[in-house]
Description:
mainly alpha
Amino acid sequence: MRTTTYPRVQLAAIRTRLRDARAARATLERELASYTSPEDLNDLHAILDRYSDQETAEIRRILARQSI
Length: 68
């Protein structure tokens, strides 16, 4: 079996993209955590309902996890 080796530059770029994605997700989680009142959450869900489930899946997962 042949294995493919990636140049270090590509690996560094992948690591950077993953780090940036994690940072963006952490920021999104912090921002969504500020919606605490039932009114705020109702407004947010009404906004999310205007978009497809595919587009809002990550936000809905975060909100579900935070409501526990």
